[in-house]
Design goal:
mainly alpha; single chain; 176 residues; 3 strands; three-stranded antiparallel sheet; Transposase
């Protein structure tokens, strides 16, 4: 809090001033803690001072003060999700790939069986493959052409069409 007051005092004495990155981070850290707890009127006043102090646009300044210390999830163009956490959000060091919280329900064997049936169906989409699988699996079992266990069969039939499409996405891309 002392640093913020010192910087504000310097600002009032000499007009607009340019802060170093360390000073800006210190100001953001202290101001954000206060900003997230105060009323709307006080936020407006704080935001005005913060904009003068840092030179940020008002929109970005409010974003910085609102999100400091929290998780920000960003979907990147390559399909990955990135989570920025805390003050690392503003330093570039906080790049962390979000890990799956749940274990996969369908393992590699289920995926292999799905690809096997998908190729056999001449690469149908997930919704049509759903109907096809319900008909073809019993026929394949009658002729001993379905080399997978009953557990895998049950999991295959329980997969939703959207999940099937998601699982087959990489294979589709490699075919084109």
């Amino acid at each position: 809090m002392k640093k913020v007051e010192e910087v504000l005092k310097k600002l009032k004495e000499g007009g607009f001033m340019i802060l170093s990155l360390k000073e800006r981070k210190a100001v953001i850290k202290e101001e954000a803690a206060i900003y997230q707890k105060v009323t709307k009127k006080e936020k407006s006043r704080m935001l005005d001072e913060f904009v003068k102090l840092t030179g940020y646009s008002r929109c970005y300044a409010s974003y910085v003060l609102r999100t400091y210390g929290s998780k920000v999830v960003v979907d990147l163009e390559n399909g990955k999700r990135t989570v920025f956490i805390g003050d690392d959000l503003y330093s570039g060091k906080g790049l962390k790939i979000r890990k799956r919280k749940r274990e996969r329900v369908y393992g590699e064997e289920v995926f292999d069986a799905l690809v096997y049936l998908w190729k056999m169906s001449d690469y149908l989409c997930g919704k049509r493959l759903n109907v096809y699988m319900k008909e073809i699996i019993p026929i394949l079992e009658n002729f001993n052409e379905f080399p997978y266990s009953k557990e895998i069969k049950e999991k295959l039939l329980s997969i939703s069409p959207a999940t099937r499409d998601c699982c087959l996405r990489k294979k589709r891309i490699s075919l084109s």
